Amino acid sequence: MKTTINISILTIAIGGLIWLLTACSAAPAETPIVTVSIEPQKYMLEQITGDKVDIRTLIANGANPENYDPSLTHIMNLRKSIGFLRMGNIGFEAALLDKIRQEDPELPIFNTSEGVVPVTGTHSHGHGHGAVHHEEIDPHTWTSVKNAKIIVRNMLDAMVKIDPSNKDYYRRNYERFAQRLDSLDRDFESRLASHAGEHFMVWHPSLSYFARDYGLEQITAGNAENKESSLTMLRKTIDHADSHSASIFFYQKDLDSRQAEVLSDQLGLRKVSINPLSYDWEAEMCAITDAITAD
């Protein structure tokens, strides 16, 4: 009787062990993490990767990249990533790269704006009265369909390197998205052709590449840091906008200075709210084009 009980217990124990091993082996593998800097990058990368990777963004929608300081959580997420696809010229990225290389020198890092012809001068700054002003590269490379074609190609190359097992899947998705970008670009070119040479106003210089793409002129009312402008600078901006018949004021309601609304009201401009850091990158690009071609 005792022997029979012991055999039964042993049988149950072995069965439980087999079930446990089977359950563990059947558990889905953890989805690899890839980190990007901003939400528009996440949108673009998802068009290529689908559900093959978990894409994490350093800057959540609504944050200001001009004064952003990555938290410890963001650093930890980066350490879990199989790759970091940075935007390229956003200020906080340079400081972050030093931290990453100290914490995880083996983490693959890719500049997704590599190959984009830069715009300079929009974020110029000096250090004190009479100092030489240094021209920095405008970081808003993603606010351009033409640039997006380069960015997503860089993303494809990055994913093929860090996850070669899915390279064929990534390439198929890339080809579809590249065709979509070509279609968008042709549509924008056709609709904006008759508006070439027109001026529009922004507070923060976020549409430099878009303006360059389609022969438009961006008048910057504020500055790269979204700080208050002097009365002298505002007067010059008003005169400049008047002389070039600007009719639209693009503003970021959560980030722009309170002077932005006052200025647009004084000029009688049509105000259009934009969010260059929105996840829905394509919708933002279409909304900007719609606003300019509405007149």
Automatic annotation (TrEMBL):
Origin: domain of life: Bacteria
Coiled-coil annotated residue ranges, if any: none
One GO-annotated biological process of the protein: metal ion transport
Family: Belongs to the bacterial solute-binding protein 9 family.
Full protein name: Zinc ABC transporter substrate-binding protein
UniProt keyword annotations, A-Z: Signal, Transport
Matching Pfam families: ZnuA
Gene3D superfamilies: Nitrogenase molybdenum iron protein domain
GO molecular function, one term: metal ion binding
